[in-house]
Amino acid sequence: MNAFLQFVGHHEAAWRVGRAGPHAGWDVAHYRYLARVAERGRMDAVFLGDSPAAYGSDHSELAYRPLARLDPTILLSDLGASTANVGLIATASTTYAEPYELARRLASLDHVTGGRSGWNIVTTSSAHAARNFGLDAHPDHPTRYDRAAEFLEVALALWGSWPVDAVLADRERGRFADADRIRAIDHVGARFRVAGPLNVPRPPQGHPVLVQAGSSPDGIAFAARYAEAVFTARLNAEDARAFADRLRADVTAAGRNPRGVLVLPGLVPILGGTEAEARDAKRRLDEAVLPGSILPSLSRLLGIPLTEADLGRPLLPGDLPEGAGERGSRSALVQELLGGARFTVGELVVRYAAGRAHLEVTGTPEQVADVIEDWYARGAADGFNIMPPVFPEGLEDFVDHVIPILQRRGLFRTEYEGTTLRDHYGLPLPEPHDTRRTALR
Asked: What is the pLDDT of residue 35?
């Protein structure tokens, strides 16, 4: 169970309705409190998304919702000092970073937090990010994943450039390290030339837990090769089970143990003491949605222009270009969200506002726990990225009312049994990455 900390909540209207208010997204005290709540619930990790750009190329969405993209590694370093056990997962792009710098930053985070770090690997879907890095155009999808694969090879080699027994720390003999054991990587590839070694000793976890969030064919192939956990958007258990089965088969084909890759769908729980209270909470959120905050992203996603003049227009799945827009896999999920029903654009805006095509469950704590147990029992999920609609009350309610039910059912821990994120996830320490390296002399 990860707590996905997204500004002031995952519902588009969270900043207008939730207790945190519109300024909390850049207030470190807000995130410290949320991390402590997650730790109180014995959750595995807090998870921070990120993007190397503002919302859209014309910035129009900034008029309707807060933006607060604090650097995740900096923020998580602080949260690591504010907590003792909960894992800390940072999103970072392989398209708009360099392997040595990011590998060093993530290794540092793992050291600073005593082995609690994870890296959510993304290739960046937002085309307007290119102009922030001196590029005329955003690389296409296959190119981004080719770069990501080489990026990972370099990062893994750098993390392995200090074997666990390289540091001698022999004060009496004056030998800090066995220099013959510390190796340059001398990587020369299509996109990167990196000498190494890393200037940070081997991280406590060997390397941060590798998380991946893409569900396209390229994304699944990448996950099969590298990922240890996969964050995915699924709307029903049957589809989630099919996705998990395909991923596990691909992991096996890549020569890896499928039990070493966790499938973690997103879940937006809208809770109430009764079903009526939960529906009322959802209604208050939905009524506060401003269409202008959603229409630009839906337009990019679906590949069709949408304005407020279209809110009353009927929209059917057949109206959407197949695989169009920024993210073909998410576009398909929006089509599934329509489900063959006849929605207006305005109704789709409201449906999308709650969780952006992630599973939404509105109900009592018992009903949310039932869904979690059902998906787990079917093999559709190993766990979930919990995406509360509002902070902090949405996370408080989940920790105080849903997790105790899962604990009573024997489905979730009552105490932490280890100190690292790998301990929480049940993942082994990785072997040093096998690559061509040259011993330092």
From this structure: 98
